[in-house]
Amino acid sequence: STIQASLRQGRAQVNGRSFSSGSAPHRKVAVLGAAGGIGQPLSLLMKLNPLVSQLSLYDIAGTPGVAADVSHINTRSEVTGYVGEDQLGKALEGCDIVIIPAGVPRKPGMTRDDLFNINAGIVKGLCTAIAKYCPNALVNMISNPVNSTVPIASEVFKKAGTYDEKRLFGVTTLDVVRAKTFYAGKANVNVSEVNVPVVGGHAGITILPLFSQATPTANLSDEVLTALTKRTQDGGTEVVEAKAGKGSATLSMAYAGALFADACLKGLNGVPDVVECSFVQSSITELPFFASKVRLGKNGVEEVLGLGALSDYEKQGLEALLPELKSSIEKGIKFANQ
Ligand code: NAI
């Protein structure tokens, strides 16, 4: 991979040219919830990213140990652990990117919306601090329900007068990662070459993979496409059930979160044509937030790309998801304003 190649060379690829680690731009990245199931492997993967110069690990407990451990890895970034609310400001000061996997995960039988009561408050508190200490940072929201936590963040930032819609992202990369893996299996193509956009939101039927746009192309039957769509939508639940009460996806999520943060860093550094799917403020449907392909740049979102041509099955899926996504967005906005 490019990360491994860069690490071997001790160099970072920026703008198509390579810089020695010393001359790559300074970038501070914070992980909030860094001692958790996602937080720990995500912190590890961010420590391996040569585009990061300062890695700030925050949690309400456990971060000194995680930070001491990760800090011994001989890569570019300096690692600091922060624990407890008193240290949140220091953790955030000067951040370019804040990644948020803080909050409770699902147990079998739970929907992502069942997490709302606990996670909404956690996200509100963390975003209030972001508005104060690093109002210009790109925020990568992982905490569920993403369909509601992103609107909560936007309202908190609006109230603080710091909202910039180009800088707020719901991380839906795991849906893309799953769609690629499952598609490659059925289409019998090299998984590393697969591209599949996933649009809508990040819960159940709001997750809409667009297999009609998947590349390399394959002639899959309607039955197979339906099964692939359902498996992508239920991928999180598949993991929750297999873990049988011990949480939800953490390792694949850490991978996906690291991939998305890397894309954000490349965008900030001026690398051209960085495109990822993300749940962002959007005008491509009647809803205020929607996941679609997004071009990333020096200020975050450079362009929200359209949906492209949909199959009849995908058009039905789009119609079906809008009411649920709308109510999840409204629930978040209402919570933030109460
Ligand atoms: P976990 O329970 O293992 O870790 C959560 C961490 O957050 C804990 O270390 C906890 O101490 C910390 N935390 C709690 N309150 C905090 C606060 N106020 N400030 C900072 N840290 C705080 O949970 P896990 O498995 O890491 O999941 C985290 C979140 O990510 C959940 O909401 C889960 O639903 C979500 N998730 C999102 C996915 C996505 O695709 N966007 C995929 C998988 C999980």
TrEMBL record:
Active site: residue positions: H202 (proton acceptor)
Any one GO CC term of the record: mitochondrial matrix
Main location: mitochondrion
Similarity-based family: Belongs to the LDH/MDH superfamily. MDH type 1 family.
Organism (species): Heracleum sosnowskyi
Binding site for NAD(+): G33, A34, A35, G36, G37, I38, G39, D59, N119, I142, S143, N144, M253
Listed Pfam families: Ldh_1_C (PF02866), Ldh_1_N (PF00056)
GO molecular function: L-malate dehydrogenase (NAD+) activity
PANTHER family: MALATE AND LACTATE DEHYDROGENASE, MALATE DEHYDROGENASE 1, MITOCHONDRIAL-RELATED
GO BP terms, alphabetized: malate metabolic process; tricarboxylic acid cycle
UniProt xrefs under SUPFAM superfamilies: LDH C-terminal domain-like, NAD(P)-binding Rossmann-fold domains
Keywords: Mitochondrion, NAD, Oxidoreductase, Transit peptide, Tricarboxylic acid cycle
Assembly and interaction partners: Homodimer.
Gene3D superfamilies reported for this sequence: Lactate dehydrogenase/glycoside hydrolase, family 4, C-terminal (3.90.110.10), NAD(P)-binding Rossmann-like Domain (3.40.50.720)
Protein name according to UniProt: Malate dehydrogenase
Binding locations of substrate: R106, R112, N144, R178
